[in-house]
Amino acid sequence: MPAINRSELIQRRLENFLGTCLLLGSLATLAGLLGYLFAGWAGLLWTAAMVAVAAAALSGVPATIVLRRSGALPLAHWQAPRLYQIASELARRAELKYVPLLHYIPDEQINAFAVGSAQRGNGGIAITEGLLRALSLRETAAVIAHELSHLRHGDTRMLALASFLTNAIVYLGLFAQLTLLIAFPWLLEHEQGIPLISLFIIVISPTAALLLQLSLSRNREYAADLEAVALTGDPEGLAQALEVLEHYQSAWLESIFGKKRRLPLRHRWLSSHPPIQERIRRLQDLTNPPPTPPVIGIDCSHERADGWVQIPVRRLR
């Protein structure tokens, strides 16, 4: 297992932190500007209050509701002792008070996601049947570390708040555009002008908000990759898991569009996840050539992960 390039890890962490602050701050600023354009300082205060209430409400949504709607089934410790051993060790390394509950989704797609908050004790990580069938235990451990990093840093709540802000900005912006369109004859008749900067903000705000939200989501994926490596000490394990994911995604795309079809750059801007090859490249930048012993403290060999889950799983077709 290659050693971690600590200086590269620290630099990437700083870049992701600053990027998160910039993107989330830009969304909040855009929402505040629209509120101010609608009702002056009162509108700005109402926007701030709305964001505060939304943040409080979103933090109280139980993770079990989201997991149940996704068809996830809770895994008891006796059903997946090895996976819980890995999750417990990672939670200890992350200095979390609670170990996230693991859930199983009977779906052939290779996927995993986190919901809730590990700090509040209601965090959960869902893993699909396809992932358990396709990945080794080492690769599955890296994926669990990635999802636990999302929980550790409150990414689920942050992205939910960003989604709320984006929706508010889109609806406000479209409402303002419609209002201007209806009022345009009256403005011409009474020779009333609109400041160019205000018009510019109203026109671009819906699109800008959507792009900022997607960029924030990609930023948090990069950050979760880095934090997963910091927890496991194994960038290669996560890179291998991503390679498996890319293989299945490429096969699916080729079945629809034909061979060697790549997503155009403009479409990548509209994706909530970064390109897998770029994520792998960044992980490879974190490794030093000299091999060192595993540092996760658990023997995550190349065994298939599904061998450690005591539930009926179907073979992938």
Q: Could you tell me the number of beta strands? A: 6
Structural class: alpha+beta
What fraction strand? 5-15%
N→C terminal distance: 32 Å
Widest sheet, order of strands? 2-3-5-4
* C-alpha geometry: elongated
Instruction: Specify the number of helices.
Output: 10
Helix content: 55-70%
Mean pLDDT across all residues, rounded?
A: 80
Instruction: Please trace the helix and strand order, writing H or E for each element.
Output: EHHEHEEEHHHHHHHE
- In quaternary terms, these chains amount to single chain
Computed over alpha carbons, the radius of gyration is: 23 Å
> Any low-confidence stretches, pLDDT <50, length ≥5?
289-295, 312-317
* Domain module count: 1
GO molecular function, one term: metalloendopeptidase activity
Pfam family, one: Peptidase_M48
Subcellular location: Cell membrane
Protein name: Peptidase M48
